[in-house]
């Protein structure tokens, strides 16, 4: 199985797995495990791809996937580098467990990659460019007048 570890803040784009090429026609195309993704610690996700049976020595497969930043999940530091990690695993059956609860032991999953690979996730940030800005404003002249009442005549007078 090929495991692709997707970092925190990103997710696999469902339906984007596409087999592109394989070294021979005597084995099937790779496919996703069902379910294809599972959450693991630190809010990361693993995407699992089945390695076709029948592959030999120097056989290979090529495929593409897409990942995207999760909605409403801003990155805390835009200069951080984010990477996909990938590695392979295999299940081993028939290992003797003389002191275990059953003999042979249940299947054991082992990592078969000598060194995990990494792929940088390009982090594209929007640039803000403001040009030819026109500002409009309206002035409203505020005039304050004060009315004063003369007590004897009770007639208001305008004071300036």
A few lines on this structure:
It contains no helices and twelve strands.
The radius of gyration computed from the alpha-carbon positions, rounded to a whole number of angstroms, is: 34 Å
Q: What low-confidence regions span 5 or more consecutive residues with pLDDT below 50? A: none
H/E element sequence: EEEEEEEEEEEE
Q: Determine the fraction of residues in helical runs and give it as a percent range.
A: under 10%
Query: How confident overall, as mean pLDDT?
Result: 83
How much of the sequence lies in strands comes to 35-45%
> Helical segment tally?
0
Separation of the first and last Cα atoms: 91 Å
- What structural category do the secondary elements indicate? mainly beta
Largest sheet: 6 strands, antiparallel
Overall geometry comes to elongated
β-strand number: 12
How does this structure look, described?
The protein is mainly β and 160 residues long. It has strands at 2-6, 10-12, 18-22, 31-39, 45-50, 61-64, 67-69, 82-92, 108-111, 117-121, 146-149, 156-159. Strand 4 and strand 5 form a beta hairpin. It is elongated. It starts with a strand and ends with a strand. The relative contact order is 0.19.
